[in-house]
Amino acid sequence: MTLAQDPHLPTSAVAGDETTISTSGNGQAILYLVGPGVASKREISLGEDIHLPSRELQNAGRYVVSVCSDACRSGSFYVAAAEPASLTFLVHPSRVPVGLSDAISGVALPFDPFHNLVRVPMAITFQLTSGKTAMMSRSVQTQDGVAWFRTSSGKDAGVLHVVAAVDELSARRAVQQVASEPCNLRIKGQRTPKAILVETEPVRDCSGNPVPDGTIVTFTAAEADGKSTVDAPIKQGVARAQIIVTKAAVISAASGVVMGNELRLGAQP
Amino acid sequence: MRFALPILLVAVTVGLIAAALFGVGQAGGTVGIAAGSALPGLTPNAGTPEQALANLFTDLQRRNWNRAFAALSKTSGVDEPSFIQDWAGANGSLRTFSNLEGYDSRPLHATSDDAQVRVRLHWATPVGPVEDVRDFHLTHEGDGWKVVWPKVEAPTVPAQVVPVTYLRWDLISGGAEDGWGSRNVDSPHVRIISMNAVESAEGSVVMGEVVNEDTIPAFVNVNAALVDGSGNAIDDESSFDKIAHVLLPKQVSPYRIDFPNINLKNVKNVRMDVKATLVPASADPVIGVMDQKLDPDVQGKSVLHGELLNQSGQTVNIPHVIASFYDSNGKVVWVADGYVDRSLLPQTSEPFAVEIPRTLAGKVQTFHVVVNQYSLGKS
Amino acid sequence: MIGYIKSHVVRWVVPLAAVMTVLLLGSYDLRGADPTVQVRFDASKAGPRVVESLTEERILRDYRFAWTSLTQAMEYNTLDPLEGPFVGTAKQWLAQTVVSQRQTGLRSQYTQQNHTLEAVFYAPEGDVIELHDTAEYHLQVLDGDKEIHNEQVIVRYVVLMTPAADRWVIRQMQAVPQF
Question: Assuming Cys at both sites, which of A66, B288, B351, B376 could form a disulfide with B309, CB separation 3.0 to 4.6 Å?
């Protein structure tokens, strides 16, 4: 049994493709293959081509081949990623106030069917659509397997659809565009037999977008010797609360850092 | 001689049993329920107001409602069902899960015919020990003293339909087979807006306020780690139940983190960490906090009290009040909480009270109250 | 009396010393090959987001720890070290390698490691960083006790790391012929 020279390895191999190793010499030997996700050994006949099946070469990376008879001879080769089969698409934030510059960003990474990062440069198209309005469409070349974009949020509240596409592949994400801080929080009150019913006018941001339902508006009735408060959520654009006030009181409202107008009420007759 | 030891043991045992049976309420000013009668018919006569209260509490603790009600004064303005509901609670309130552990009593005044006794009741509850101070009026009737149980004003809600604009948030998450990046819904954005560390009688306390700056509800927990001069962690704790965990958008909650038996002098640094996660949530019920006042109570302690008003159409089983107290500079100087042991029926109100330490009473200028709520069958 | 004490001391010290020696030798043997992993990290060219200094420290720490764990896993064919520093595809590949090595009786030793790490992309929101690692190490592959491969080699890795709850983890680690 003699091993005349190092095994002849492929100069290029692609993930998921089978390949062939040739050896010289004669007699029996053992072939070892150690690479990402694989460590195998098998008996081979020297001088014959050795077939490496595709299942052993699915992961991109460096593979070491050793052929041992009386001595061992080694070599290595690289397996590159195959054609892209999926896109990992990271988009942030999930919720963004309207009219904010450079507020939305996305990163796309193409992967082949075996989850190898595809590093060959390719053009990825990013498209942002709000309702039926196309907000942005940009083609970005991947560099080291990554393409990214950054853009401003739109003017209108609602769902923003963000799509990354390459050839027939696409990945889709949703960003919720929400109103900014309330603008001009205004309240009005109405006496009922038991209490004062206070409510806001429709709460909107300065661009006219309705502030999201659920946002807390704190109503405060300050009397001479105490106060009453209600944390009321905005529902269908309006926050409502009933406050029991028998004496003269000043009723005000606040949401986050925004203060509303004041209502001054005399004592209940 | 060989019978001496068994006879002695029997005698001591009988003596101890007798002492236990007849010794109820004989300890003077502070009387414990645990010393009550174990056998019917052996309850001592209520020869003193304290003895009458001890007998009543023994029966109530054993849920011996008939005997307890029979021991009340005829002048009591209460029927038996109302009396039982007043004591044992209803509608899944905190009181329905509570047991009387003991009490301390102090006579306020006494004549030969009537007496006033202030009782501090110690309740064991699922949220920890709760204390309740009540004044009892007793009268001398026949050959003993009887407790006059006050008329109970149980809230009643007329049958009605309360329209509710129901608002809730659901979360769509990807399936298990989805890959990296496909389930990236950002966590809610919450922020600690104030933090203050103080020394208290029990140890160190870290407190402040946290706000949900996002547009969706957040489940929030605040953690603090105390660090010594060498940079080593002394202890870390979380806000546990001293925070409103579910915060709606723009809602502010006080938080308090207790470090028992840790001297603040040994603390060089406090590391704060706020965790917020997405949760499905509902915007109801809305609970108003009416008539908030900071006054001294009957014992001279500074107490913030007021009324919780349930503005929704659902019963709140266990209301929980958390309050932050500010000094003249707007700095949070204390955070206190308290559970209300009555359930809050729709459209009704219940009083609440939270106490602040005497040492801080002079500093407090303003306060902010939030209401947490636990409802049976809801998370 | 002194003689009694001496004999007692000798009687206890000798076995104690023997036990300590065995323990020390044992621990040395468990460590196996030199586990030192040298990593130099340059994050200055990363973009579009600038790598914060604290993040840089954490990544350096966690990348070094990941290679220490990988080295142990490959040498002792154990999966435990892979829990934590690796997730996703990287963890899956390394676990497959360990399982295959167990089945075939192989093991791999990575020694004298020097990693020159460079950040080439850091996502705008900081949720992924791409690193280029020029790793120089000594690789020895053994079948039982028989050496079947031995080389001093420079391997280039494209690495994707993502932040986890308390550390940065390797999600993808792919050797490439050139950057």
Answer: B288
